[in-house]
Amino acid sequence: MSASTNIGIGSRVYMQICIAGEPGCVMAFDKKGRALVDWSFDMPELNRWTSHDPSSLVVDESFSVRQLDLFEEVAA
User: Fold this and answer.
1) Three-class SS of residue 22?
2) Higher pLDDT, 48 or 63
3) Which domains does the chain have, with CATH numbers?
4) Whole-model pTM?
């Protein structure tokens, strides 16, 4: 897990105090610089984005685009 300095829109994140379950996805930043996170994968009952200080979040480094099977390996 990495520091909050790498958090941007589209980052998959956990809360530092609760690194469990499915990560949320940073959808936007508000005017105060707080990250708006969609946790619907793990908690669909929230049905809304929650606001977090970026320093309270940790980036999920275990995820990569390759896991989505969007790209095939191509020999150069």
Assistant:
1) coil
2) 48
3) 4-64 (2.30.30)
4) 0.69
